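Final report, closing paragraph on structural work. Over the funding period we assembled a curated collection of sequence-structure pairs, and we close with a single example.
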Amino acid sequence: MNFQQEFRMAFDGKYDNLSLKSVVAKKRDGTVIVTFLYPSTEPELSDEQKNEVTHWLSEKLSLEKMTLKVKFMRVFVEERLILKAIKEFFDEKFKLISTYTTEDSFKVKITPIDVQVEVELSSRLKKLFEEHNISVELAKFLKANFLREFVVIGVENPNLIDEVDIENAQMKATYKVTQRYQVQVLENIAGTGFKEFSSKQEVSQAADAANAGDGNDEILLAFPEKISHIKEPKTNVVVAGFLRAIERKDFVIKKGKKVGQSKAYYPFVLQDEHGRIDGVYFCPKAYEQKMETLAESDYVVMHGDVRVSQVGKLQLVADKIARATKLEEVQKQEEVEYQGPVVVPEKITALEQNFMFEQKNKYNRKIMGRTIVVFDIETTGLDRERDQIIELGAVKIDDGNIIERFSTFVKPTKHIPYEVTKLTGISEDMVADAPPIGLVIRDFFNFSKDCVLCGHNIIEFDMHFIRREGAAEGLDFDNEIIDTLNEARVARLRTTRFNLGTVTKLLGISLEGAHRAWNDAYATAQVLLKLNLA
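Its predicted structure, as stored:
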């Protein structure tokens, strides 16, 4: 008999609407947190009902040195939240599918009986979907999070481009640099647990101890993560930033032992360099006086849990607040040890080119019997000496067949200008968790070793960036070069302009998602093949 069955029997079905979500033990706080979900369509639980469930759990678990906390969360079934959960599911468990789907690939229909989800897939991905029974697993995941029956169906769209070799596909590795940075805690305002440092040297020593595994939990609380990295609900969050809005509000307790008493709470907005989050702090009377000293633009560090609010937005529910100051030194997060590839190429089924060519192997000697890596980069600007790579995409052609894909964002050390984001669609948030160029260039060197390098108009621009970054890592990109700009000119195409957009249009090749490295590299590879028919 599992817990859910025993729970229902204990109350004779009285709380069938409650579903156990999680049990989390926090040794540092000496607490065990049990979270139940129940539908927003059900009446809100009374304090008496909550106490009844809590009392039963307390006797059942027989906790001696731990304090039991029970949370009751209402679940809202909304299309936007469901789509977000579906994306998280595929990103976590089936990266291959998330790579080739977008939000438009999923259709959600909420009915009085169930929620119907259609997943639009290419023929090969639909085969993978069925073989691994993913529809059942996704339905189970969604039911656990939304407490509704879900019906998931994979729908084949024959018009979708299918490049994935299901048999030999490798999942793209996710690489994240350290997200935490240093702040100096000046004064605890509310709650306890923040370590107050009197100097930057103390902070640096604490950071070294934490990295070595010798630091305690209090010291770790001095190192927040970036707000922009928080994409989903999570516990034990530490963030820092400027208060952009904070005010005191009061409410009257209507139920329980403290009925009729007034309690203060402080809604606020916290903002760091790249993100912001709404929050709230429910203030015990012991901390009211210090909370009143906080004002707009104060820099603070906070600890708490990030939850989904009743309006469906992420919200920080703080339990510790301290006045702080940000330190300029970066906490050794650029010194990342290289432990194998951070970019894992994906195998691609040999490009089915019969729709373009009547016969196979119709290429000349420039293509046949050779391995060619066609690549493209996106950068922070056009200055070859000062600007940096923010995306690198490539495909490998072997004996006329496109067999592998290499694609990654790159985290720069300078800001991405607005004009670049507008042109490429690449924002600061998109590269925030990307590997640094020093690691990426090593992987690209291994990917392109002993291959011909190819690109469109790469000799004076792209190759300069690649060779510069390679030289910084002691790598020599002395590969043979093919430039499709020159190939197009030699082919005497009927145009006076030879940019990639014009050339692909003349050759009848699709260039969707231009100014993105992978898309441009893939289109350039097709240009190379078509210009070198035997």
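The chain has four domains: 3-75, 79-156, 183-326, 346-531. Confidence is low (pLDDT under 50) at residues 163-179, 210-221, 329-336, 350-359. We thank the funder for supporting this effort.
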